[in-house]
Specification:
two-stranded antiparallel sheet, single chain, mainly alpha
Length: about 260
């Protein structure tokens, strides 16, 4: 019962973070699933792979629904999404294939390093807390940055929003615009990553209720609770001022880092 409540609360939180920060699941879901499975002897060796894979599948539903709603509301800009989305998809395929060759413990360590670097970057470099003048992404930034975002995000199951939001923010976009774009930009990572984790996990995980590395029961519960979280945040919580939005974003990153370390 306690595990069920934990999963539902984590799923509800992913819905909220999907709307507020563009996190389709990864940063909230991965620590919870990992801590739940690492205590099970038959799954402990694959706990991080299962957490990352299930998180990646959750992002398809959360980010997909949020993207559709933002498109209907006219909040998505082609200049923000293309050609960046294509390069992210290329990197996502590379990262997903590479993840199957890396040990579970190594993925967890990379996850923590990734979070530390992201936090330091947001706090120490100008352009995140104080928004600069808006400018277009250069071809080099879209190409190199997009492939890097897709590779790292698919490898760690985090969707890429933690990289796309700071990137767009430093190019002068509001937090609301950055978060709206982060959801569709996470979809290439989620789709490519989930497909690879299904194939690579077919032989690794033989337990019932799994599709490759993806835990279907946890996926269903997280998705249902995530939709409820999205509806809640859309209807109940008012718009957050831009400067406060940026600060809360950083605070959430720190909280997730503490969760995965502990």
């Amino acid at each position: 019962m306690a595990e069920l409540i934990t999963i539902l609360l984590a799923g509800f939180a992913t819905g909220i973070t999907t709307v507020l920060f563009g996190f389709g699941g990864g940063f909230v879901v991965v620590p919870f699933i990992y801590q739940m499975l690492v205590r099970q002897p038959d799954l402990s060796d694959s706990a991080m792979h299962i957490a990352v894979a299930t998180s990646t599948a959750v992002m398809i539903f959360n980010a997909g629904w949020a993207s559709w709603q933002n498109w209907r509301a006219g909040r998505l800009s082609a200049a923000m999404l293309f050609p960046l989305a294509g390069y992210i998809a290329i990197g996502a395929v590379m990262g997903s294939l590479l993840a199957g060759e890396i040990a579970d413990r190594t993925i967890r360590l990379l996850f923590m390093i990734y979070m530390l670097v992201t936090l330091a970057d947001c706090l120490m470099r100008k352009g995140f807390l104080l928004r600069p003048t808006r400018r277009r992404l250069s071809a080099l930034t879209s190409g190199v940055g997009g492939v890097a975002i897709g590779l790292v995000a698919a490898l760690l199951g985090v969707g890429g929003s933690v990289m796309t939001v700071p990137l767009l923010r430093r190019h002068g976009y509001t937090m609301r615009d950055c978060v709206s774009a982060a959801n569709p930009l996470s979809l290439p990572v989620a789709v490519c990553g989930a497909a690879v984790y299904i194939v690579s996990g077919l032989q690794a995980v033989k337990a019932p209720g799994y599709l490759g590395f993806i835990n279907l029961k946890i996926l269903a519960l997280l998705t249902l609770a995530g939709w409820l979280g999205i509806l809640f945040i859309r209807r109940v919580v008012p718009a957050v001022p831009d400067a406060l939005h940026a600060r809360v974003y950083i605070a959430l990153l720190l909280a997730v880092l503490v969760a995965i370390v502990l």
